[in-house]
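thought: fold this chain, then report.
action: predict
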Amino acid sequence: MKVVILGQYPLNPEKIRGGVETCIIGLANELKKYPDIELHILTLEIMQKDITKTVDNVTIHYLASPPLPRFITKNTIDKNKTIKKIKELKPDIVHAHMYDSGYYALKSGFPSLITIHGIAMDEYDIKIQSGLLEMIRRMVYLPIEQYVFKRAKVLTVLSPYTKKKIELFCNGEIHIIPNGINKEWFNIQNKEIDGRILFVGRIFPVKKIEYLLQAVKRIRYHRKNVELHIAGDFNEKKVYFNLLRKFTDKNELSKNVKFMGALHGNNLRNEYAECSIFVLASHIEAFPIVLLEAMASGKPIIASNVGSIPYIIKDGENGFLFEYGDVDDLANKITKLLNDRELRLKMGNNGKKIAKGFPSWEEIAQKYYKLYKTVSQ
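observation:
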């Protein structure tokens, strides 16, 4: 069975850029062990020419995309190159990740399975994404998403939240298969630095990192040693990053807030080891894999009560949920945890137990393998 996985895949597997890449790598590492699967990964990358390489029974096709805004290339150059390559490979099934890749899979005409990681109608909420460019993005992305929901025969989602959100727009089957967690995260030793708060993720408006900065501003007046580490890449959203830096400088938070840049491997694991609390203040989340990483690392979590987060964080058990946008509530709950080491340890231990209840990538691959067999027939 020839399987094409379509979606984001890093040039360097040691430098993973987000949950989609984590998912594809975790899944591919298990599927490559199946003797009856010929596995190809098809991904778009900003580069000058196409690259194809085979590593451990997996053939990875990097298709060159020009350095232009994605909303320009997504439905033109990227679509045409991707569909052409799929037709060359002639797969038994295309497993597409995200709605744009799902659009290409459906247009290719081959049997397809589409995994929805995030929802455009959430991420491009006009309340948080404004301006002419964002309006153009909405005009490009939303019709693509609607096409996928309407035409896809089989979709998978990461949580009950996403299934409930999209099922009214879909005509096909929807299966819930969450992301997995690598065993290495459970081996992280606690090297907690008192007062250290950690955020990991894209520096992107949806993440509402300004709420974290505002909370730190409140907390530092009664706790001198509070320190927020922000680990993530700003990608094309440098305007947002600059706004965060401007707020930090204006409020003299440079001693309390550290922008760490994109971290990987041991550097990232070390941040989890040293933090006292992991915090996520997002406007919306479909399934933040960073929460599983923090839980497996034994860290208590404070996160906004939105999207799929309440399915992962049990308020008062492995962390606290705060009302989205309520910075006072966020600051109070951070303070409560920073002041109570025993509670932090208890919640961290509970989180590790909950994380162990999520499926391994081996189990997730088995679920997808069964779906591949069904869909490709």
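thought: worth noting. The chain has a mean pLDDT of 92.
final: tokens above.
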